[in-house]
């Protein structure tokens, strides 16, 4: 909003005690209070005060005296914390000495309260005259404190220490053994480090489906992601001249090969029609493929292939980033067969044993554009990576509920084109023992058990959520890398009630139904735990869950974990109890009875 103040009288001195002999510029003070009311009830108020000086170059009186900060141990810091503006009245700060009585009348009923409003010495609970406690115990008059508010316990709460400028460190791993070396080698999942002791990053997808540009690359974890961008939001990644820590303190240079893409139809997903004169293009990175050659716990070589192309305004680019780890003993682009188990980040193998072509797939959605199911693509389920994806299905207001259930079920079943899942990463299609059958829990059949009635725009029991649970275990290790196998796979559905969302006006007869697919990996022990012996089952003396008397927690009220009452009270009661036990032990001793009887003789 805009407030205009017009002068209808002559300029006067702002200060009441000033005279015409002074050099203070003539000015006028205009104060405006704006109230927001509803049904004669004030909801909010705004105070506007303007000082209009005849000399436009006036900047106000600036005092050259430094502010004296009192000792915080003996006196609170400042008597009026809400006094924030020097030489002017702060609105709602009733302790501000620069506020005249006329100004205080504007906000007298809305003054700041508490310490910020000037009550820097509030009465404490232990004071005899304090009325802040809702419940006053009977013994309070005997133990309360009679003291002046100048001797408040709030004094001394301020920390006295050296003030240092906080430094924001880069993306680094703290507590390095030596500045140059990372450690004796990489382990699976460790972030790869650069020569500057920072993370080596490549754009990756987060759990929300968005691309993160500064995501660290983990050792022995492959990935293949696509990120959508345009010319406005395009950002260059990490330079390719950065040297990588091999894991033992040595640094290796990236072997980079640049190639040009002439056919950009596979990368450009959308294009807007613009005039040729207004078209602005730039040479950007379309794809980057990283190949890490590793041996044991070290990186031996890095090969990078960068594909460049021209991106123009109005075009949406689907960038692709891949990272692949190959063993030095098998660098012919074939996978390592030394560890037959799954590794985190590798696709889960699937097979369709009921078809002549046994190759199968286990996928989740990878939405693009508007997120519609018609334009969504598939991405494989990665081992050890819990995922949640989905898309939006367009539904008409006159949609038949049975047809809608069948359509949604078909969309969800298209993600799982398999009957079995491989136990290991190198399961053989000819050996059925290398595969586990997918357990399917069919969705609820609402046609026979649910009466939908004649409700238009409402469909109950729509199987809109697909739940994939994969149970795996560590069955050993090969070369220090865990060998993980899949034990079981279960697929279930969760139903929802779809209702047509009309909005403000019902001009559009199309509504949306979000359908999702979630993947959850559950780790279980490779061997079932040993059964409990009869002695462990029957011995409940020290079992706090099955026994009313819990001896291991005898002194629990005296520990810091007990929060039922203040720790000082627990400690006092504990010391008093210990004193009674000690007194009982002394009285029950035979020499005490002899001493007592001899004292009366």
From TrEMBL:
Gene Ontology CC: one annotated term: MKS complex
InterPro entries hit by this protein: TCTN1-3 (IPR040354), TCTN1-3_dom (IPR011677), TCTN1-3_N (IPR057724)
Residue span, Tectonic-1-3 N-terminal domain: 55-164
Residues in coiled coil: none
Pfam families for the chain: DUF1619_N, TCTN_DUF1619
Alphabetized UniProt keyword annotations: Cilium biogenesis/degradation, Glycoprotein, Signal
One annotated GO biological process: cilium assembly
Domain Tectonic-1-3, first and last residues per copy: 184-327, 341-524
Domain of life of the native organism: Eukaryota
Family membership: Belongs to the tectonic family.
Subunit structure: Part of the tectonic-like complex (also named B9 complex).
PANTHER family assigned: TECTONIC FAMILY MEMBER (PTHR14611), TECTONIC-2 (PTHR14611:SF6)
Annotated protein name in UniProt: TECT2 protein
Organism encoding this protein: Chordeiles acutipennis (Lesser nighthawk)
């Amino acid at each position: 909003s805009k407030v205009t103040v017009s002068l209808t009288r002559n300029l006067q001195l702002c200060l009441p005690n000033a005279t015409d002999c002074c050099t203070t510029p003539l000015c006028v003070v205009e104060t405006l209070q704006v109230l927001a009311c509803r049904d004669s009830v004030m909801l909010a108020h705004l105070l506007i005060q303007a000082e209009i000086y005849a000399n436009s170059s006036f900047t106000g009186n600036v005092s050259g005296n430094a502010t004296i900060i009192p000792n915080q141990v003996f006196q609170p810091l400042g008597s009026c914390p809400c006094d924030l503006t020097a030489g002017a009245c702060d609105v709602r700060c009733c302790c501000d000495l620069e506020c005249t009585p006329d100004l205080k009348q504007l906000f007298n009923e809305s003054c700041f309260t508490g310490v910020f409003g000037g009550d820097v010495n509030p009465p404490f609970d232990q004071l005899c005259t304090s009325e802040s406690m809702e419940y006053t115990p009977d013994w309070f008059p005997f133990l309360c404190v009679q003291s002046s508010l100048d001797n408040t316990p709030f004094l001394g709460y301020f920390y006295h220490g050296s003030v240092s400028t906080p430094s924001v460190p880069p993306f680094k791993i703290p507590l390095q053994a030596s500045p140059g070396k990372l450690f004796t080698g990489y382990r699976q999942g460790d972030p790869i480090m650069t020569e500057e002791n920072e993370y080596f990053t490549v754009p990756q997808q987060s759990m929300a489906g968005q691309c993160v540009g500064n995501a660290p690359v983990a050792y022995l974890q492959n990935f293949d992601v696509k990120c959508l961008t345009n010319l406005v939001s395009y950002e260059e990644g990490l330079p390719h001249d950065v040297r990588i820590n091999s894991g033992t303190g040595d640094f290796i240079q990236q072997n980079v090969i640049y190639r040009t893409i002439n056919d950009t139809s596979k990368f450009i997903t959308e294009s807007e029609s613009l005039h040729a004169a207004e078209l602005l293009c730039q040479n950007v990175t379309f794809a980057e493929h990283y190949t890490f050659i590793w041996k044991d716990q070290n990186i031996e070589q890095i090969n990078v292939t960068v594909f460049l192309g021209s991106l123009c305004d109005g075009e949406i680019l689907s960038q692709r980033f891949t990272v692949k780890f190959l063993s030095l003993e098998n660098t012919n682009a074939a996978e390592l067969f030394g560890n037959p188990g799954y590794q985190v980040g590798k696709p889960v193998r699937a097979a369709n044993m009921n078809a002549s072509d046994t190759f199968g797939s286990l996928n989740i959605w990878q939405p693009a554009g508007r997120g519609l199911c018609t334009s969504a693509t598939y991405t494989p389920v990665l081992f050890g990576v819990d995922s949640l994806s989905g898309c939006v299905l367009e539904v008409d207001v006159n949609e038949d509920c049975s047809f809608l259930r069948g359509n949604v079920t078909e969309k969800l079943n298209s993600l799982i084109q398999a009957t079995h899942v491989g136990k290991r990463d190198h399961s053989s299609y000819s050996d059925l023992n290398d595969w586990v059958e997918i357990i399917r829990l069919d969705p609820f059949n609402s046609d026979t058990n649910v009466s939908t009635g004649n409700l238009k725009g409402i469909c109950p029991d729509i199987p809109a959520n697909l739940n994939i649970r994969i149970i795996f275990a560590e069955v050993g290790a090969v070369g220090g890398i865990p060998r993980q196998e899949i034990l079981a796979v279960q697929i279930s559905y969760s139903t929802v009630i779809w209702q047509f969302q009309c909005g403000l006006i019902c001009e559009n007869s199309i509504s949306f139904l979000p359908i999702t697919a979630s993947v959850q990996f559950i780790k279980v022990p490779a061997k079932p735990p040993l059964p409990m012996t009869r002695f462990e089952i029957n011995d409940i003396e020290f079992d706090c869950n099955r026994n009313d008397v819990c001896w291991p927690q005898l002194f629990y009220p005296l520990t810091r974990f007990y929060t039922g009452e203040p720790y000082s009270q627990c400690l006092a009661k504990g010391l008093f109890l210990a004193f009674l036990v000690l007194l009982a032990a002394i009285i029950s001793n035979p020499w005490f009875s002899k001493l007592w009887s001899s004292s009366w003789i």
